[in-house]
Backbone:
């Protein structure tokens, strides 16, 4: 009887692990890992350059222009792996890259909590929030003010000399957070040199 119970427990454990893996696979590409902004009407050209850069590392990479001049990157690579590959050899028509370190549903309470959690996890001392309104689903001012107020007593909002900038990109069905030192989101030769020094 005891062996049977142990077998059943082991079977339940294995089943839950398998189910968890299946769910992970199904949700892996529910959100893009990063977005890249491009020049006006340069989406197709930049997409080709990005695919050429990422394909050797991920055969299943997908890039979609879901918002005009904003390319969403779906990949098995981590957001920071994507950032490193693209920042080290930026496409000629790409302006900025935002690897999503976390994503939130478009509910202001969830957005504020996740933004605060990300800042606290990095032990940020001085920061500011830059919300980018790519769709009109959420009010950017609410995001910036809400996170700033929630960080009172934990970190200083500083626009002149921030340690980090918390970027909040409002997309069609979610918000993506990126946490950078000032200027690290830019894709250019001069910014590449800046990133290498840091």
Residues:
């Amino acid at each position: 009887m005891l062996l049977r119970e142990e077998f059943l427990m082991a079977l339940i454990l294995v089943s839950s692990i398998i189910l968890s893996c299946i769910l992970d696979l199904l949700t892996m590409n529910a959100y893009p890992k990063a977005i890249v902004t491009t020049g006006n009407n340069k989406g197709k050209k930049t997409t080709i350059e990005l695919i050429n850069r990422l394909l050797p590392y991920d055969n299943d990479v997908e890039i979609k222009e879901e918002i005009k001049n904003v390319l969403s990157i779906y990949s098995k690579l981590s957001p920071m792996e994507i950032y490193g590959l693209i920042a080290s050899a930026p496409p000629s028509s790409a302006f900025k890259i935002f690897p999503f370190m976390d994503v939130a549903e478009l509910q202001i309470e969830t957005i504020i909590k996740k933004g605060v959690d990300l800042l606290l996890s990095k032990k940020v001392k001085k920061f500011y929030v830059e919300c980018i309104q790519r769709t009109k689903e959420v009010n950017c001012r609410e995001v910036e003010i809400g996170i700033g107020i929630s960080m009172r007593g934990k970190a200083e909002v500083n626009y002149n000399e921030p340690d980090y900038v918390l970027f909040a990109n409002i997309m069609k069905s979610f918000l993506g957070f990126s946490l950078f030192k000032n200027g690290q989101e830019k894709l250019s030769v001069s910014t590449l040199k800046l990133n290498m020094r840091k």
In short: The longest strand covers residues 126-133.
